[in-house]
Amino acid sequence: MELILAIVIGALYAAGLYLMMRRNLVKLIIGLVLLSQAANLLIFTAAGLRSPNAPLIPPGEKYPVGEFADPLPQALILTAIVIGFGVIAFTLVLFHRAYQSIGTDDLDQMKATDT
Amino acid sequence: MNWLIISPILLPLVLACIMLVLWRHPVWQRWIALAGMVALVGCGAGLFGVVSLHGIQSEQLAGYGAPFGITFVADLFSSIMILAAAVLGTAVTVYSMTNIENRRESFGYYPLLHLLMLGVCGAFLTGDVFNLFVFFEIMLMASFVLLTLGGERAQMEGAIKYVTLNLISSAIFLAAVGILYGMTGTLNMADLANQVVWIAENRPEELPLLTILAMMFLIAFGVKAAMFPLFFWLPASYHAPPPAVSAIFAALLTKVGVYSMARFFTLIFTHDVGTTHMIILVLAGFGMICGVLGAAAQNEFRRILAFHSVSQIGYMLMGIGLIVMLAHRDDEIAHHAVQMGLAGTIIFVVHHLFVKPNLFLVSGVVERIGGTGELKKLGGFYKSEPLLAIMFLISALSLAGIPPLSGFWAKFVLVLAGLQLGQYVIVFIALLTGLLTLYSMVKIWAAAFWTDAPENSPVHNAAHMAHARHGLRRMIYPIAVIAVIIVLFGIFAGPIFDVAMEAAGQMLDPSAYIDAVQFEEFSPTLGRGEETGP
């Protein structure tokens, strides 16, 4: 399972970075989305895929017993997804406005502020 | 519950919400924002007082002990940063009342300013890596909107580069956080410091992986801090928004990156200083040269200032990089010199937090009166605005490091530490960069202040001047106050150096930081097996 996920993550990173190096604004934003999804999957995998059992504490016990899944990485991913959603929503609007005011979606044309 | 630690985070949050409710009343928002910033100065001063009297303070939210609860820690460095950020925020808020036009004010400028402060203060105070990520994102979101508020073409182009590079850095940060959790099973900074020591003792074969992880964090923070060679978003975007926004960006955004780097590379990643800190030192040297040469090629007021930030970041990283010598020498002199280098970083961060924004604030006045920031089309400001010229001169000479102003002491401490540690190359680069900084500052001085105004300049137009002078006092006063702070900073360099040395001592000896955090008595290893926990 780790191997499959590792390949998927690697492919996502490769695709994301490739898209970001194109000259098109839309491809840039798709690349950003893929990159953040790859990071989320990486958290999930790196924290260890141990067990499908929920980390429930039986009555009378202090800790979950037996093998259980670590809930923390999932909480981290949830937070990261929510933050990523907000950021990407903003980026979409920004790029749309930029396209309207600059009149092109070609990143090579956007050199006015470069030094 | 220690409310003082949380107050720099709660206060801007609550006030930003109140201001959002008062969306249709920008004038009310102004005064609430100003009152909030003044209160934040109070919180920062209180926190600094408590920390310097009683040592490092910490708070576990919801009462769960570390590593489960949400930890906030205030040591000397973080409380100094909050105090300085709040003072600067107050000055910029006053300045904004004239500098920010009504159309920007009515689209939530002041709430955003407070949200930015929320993110910045949170990043300074948090004791948890994932919370650091969250506060970074809050800060970034606020800065994205502040940068694009107004929707001019240059702002849009600058924002695309700024947003894209910062989102890549966030993705790298997030991935590094995930791997770090996978390796150590914790994200609490104090606990991480313990775990890294444990890994070094029990599993030395994992140390190279930890070094790679340190490099991932270095890249993530390096983008935020505009470290060489990751600084390209900074000169592309800082000159695009109104000068008040440029000033608050120059004061806070890169500093949060430098702060996080200083925190991580003194508290957590100290297992292989010979490699990691050497890389920081080399990048610091390249950054100094690259930034100052880039600035020398610019011909616009704010573009020069923006590019200069890159070289100043190099100085800040130099103090962190000097820790590399602990890998080669373990005597008392080396320890003292390393502590002095880190103190130099702290002094430099605070010095730059006032000087660079002040130069941006001056550029705002110049652009308002002269109608442009291009040096060729400016002139005559020494004749028409002698006070402004003097305040510019104070800030510019301080940036270049002329005694007895703040910049001189900051560079002096760093150079002295470098000499004591025998790092002559970086010392030479630092001194050379100071000289080239002076060149750029003199270029601005000669073009904008010394020469006469060109024929077609709007300063000859009486109607334009009357409009430009309206409300100008609210832009001049904050500049004057910061100029006074810069002079006082230089005069009281002795006591400031003592405080910075103490702060550096706290950072170099993480045991005080770890002891300040209340740990849960039993620390179950969450099914990782006993062999992975300490």
SSE map:
The complex is a heterodimer of chains A (115) and B (534).
Chain A: H1 2-20, H2 25-46, H3 71-102
Helix pairs in contact in A: 1-2, 2-3
Chain B: H1 3-21, H2 26-54, E1 57-61, E2 70-74, H3 76-99, H4 102-105, H5 109-125, H6 129-148, H7 153-184, H8 189-202, H9 207-225, H10 233-237, H11 243-267, H12 273-296, H13 301-321, H14 332-370, H15 381-384, H16 386-400, H17 406-420, H18 424-450, H19 462-469, H20 473-491, H21 493-508, H22 511-516
Antiparallel strand pairs in B: 1-2
Helix pairs in contact in B: 1-2, 1-5, 2-3, 2-5, 3-5, 3-11, 3-14, 3-20, 5-6, 6-7, 6-11, 7-9, 9-11, 11-13, 11-14, 12-13, 12-18, 13-14, 13-18, 14-16, 14-17, 14-20, 14-21, 16-18, 16-20, 17-18, 17-20
Describe it for me?
The complex is a heterodimer of chains A (115) and B (534). Chain A has helices at residues 2-20, 25-46, 71-102. Chain A has 115 residues and is mainly alpha-helical. By secondary structure, chain B is mainly alpha-helical. Chain B is 75% helix and 2% strand. At the A-B interface, helix 2 and helix 3 of A face helix 6, helix 7 and helix 10 of B.
Mean pLDDT of chain A: 87
Structural class of chain B: mainly alpha
CATH architecture assignment name of chain A: Orthogonal Bundle
In DSSP terms (H or I, runs of 4 or more residues), the helix count of chain B works out at 22
Could you give the distance between the termini of chain B? 29 Å
How many β-strands of chain A, per DSSP? 0
Kindly report the average pLDDT value of chain B.
Answer: 89
Separation, N- and C-terminal Cα atoms of chain A? 47 Å
Largest sheet of chain A, in brief, is:
none
The rough form of chain A would be described as elongated
